[in-house]
Amino acid sequence: MKRIIQYLLKGLTILLPIVVTIALVHWFLVTIETWLRPIWESILGDKYYFPGLAFLSFIVIAMVVGFSARWRFINKLWQLPGNIMEKMPLLRSLYGTITDVFDLMSGKSFSDESVVRVTLPGADVKLIGIVTKKPGQKDDRLSALLDDDHIAVFLPMSYNVGGYMIIVPRSSVETLDMSPADAMQMTISGGLGKNRAHQDD
């Protein structure tokens, strides 16, 4: 019986990530198809529409939006809906959290040497974190609260979408040669994932 349970758990560890990934991709494709298909059918008609056109048009739209954001005036127009949602009490927290997560995973706004190993004061415990704020950043509330010799570090939690933001002295951190995305993957998986070291060419 014990061996059967071990086989079951092994099978689940292989199949569940595949199933969840496929389910998320399917949801994403279906959502785009549901939103954009009626528009294309009204333009082309049912005869000329083919499955996948909605997704291809979404990719093109995303590329055009990203390209047009190079100009300051157009970039402000794209940011207008987000700025409006940030002023709405019910949507502000949700929208801000989502944008912060995307910025965190993409490494946006992170400076060089942003992944660090933190040694907790008075202990030998070391944690991997990501520097989110440094003192001296203009128009930033958290940066204004930091002393010159302190930085804000985000400590992701393993197997959980969450973490802690701590303020520590610079002497308590050691820079790691790692990208924020790799650091997030390693800490969220608890170090159990296949985090292969980068090979020098």
UniProtKB/TrEMBL annotation:
<feature type="transmembrane region" description="Helical">
    <location>
        <begin position="7"/>
        <end position="28"/>
    </location>
</feature>
<dbReference type="Pfam" id="PF04367">
    <property type="entry name" value="DUF502"/>
</dbReference>
<dbReference type="InterPro" id="IPR007462">
    <property type="entry name" value="COV1-like"/>
</dbReference>
<protein>
    <submittedName>
        <fullName>DUF502 domain-containing protein</fullName>
    </submittedName>
</protein>
<keyword id="KW-0472">Membrane</keyword>
<keyword id="KW-1133">Transmembrane helix</keyword>
<keyword id="KW-0812">Transmembrane</keyword>
<feature type="transmembrane region" description="Helical">
    <location>
        <begin position="48"/>
        <end position="69"/>
    </location>
</feature>
